[in-house]
């Protein structure tokens, strides 16, 4: 299958005004973590690395989980890199910046 990188910023609408959206985001990250794919949490988005189909499935699970938590709507901003080889790699794309600075 094709290797991919998928970055997502998930923005669920809280069930009640004033609800803490961190509970929703924490659940989304739990889904990513339990999937076993490589991932990196950033301040504005989380990036996953893995099989293209698997990453799309994780994205779907994340969105469905927001509804299960009571969110009436979800906006997911997604960046996707798909490569038929193995060029879609966080390590390869960041090798010039090993310390993140």
- SSE topology string: EHEEHEH
* Mean pLDDT value: 90
Oligomer: single chain
**What is the CATH C level class, in words?**
Alpha Beta
- Which sequence of strands runs across the widest sheet? 2-3-1-4
The geometry reads as: globular
**Number of strand segments:** 4
Poorly predicted runs are none
- Helical region count? 3
Helix content: 25-40%
The major pleated sheet works out as: 4 strands, antiparallel
Total of domains: 1
User: What portion of residues belong to β-strands?
Assistant: 25-35%
Helix-and-strand structural type = alpha+beta
What's the CATH architecture name? Answer: 2-Layer Sandwich
Radius of gyration: 14 Å
Could you name the key traits of this structure?
four-stranded antiparallel β-sheet, single chain, Alpha-Beta Plaits, 36% helix, 101 residues
How would you characterize this protein structure?
- It is built from three helices and four strands.
- The chain has 101 residues and is of the alpha+beta class.
- The protein has one domain: Alpha-Beta Plaits (2-Layer Sandwich).
- A four-stranded antiparallel beta sheet has the order 2-3-1-4, with helices on one face.
- Strand 2 and strand 3 form a beta hairpin.
- The protein is globular and about 45 Å long.
- The model has no long low-confidence stretch (mean pLDDT 90).
Topology, element by element:
Elements (H helix, E strand, L loop, with lengths): L2 E10 L9 H14 L2 E4 L4 E6 H17 L5 E10 L6 H5 L7
Antiparallel strand pairs: 1-3, 1-4, 2-3
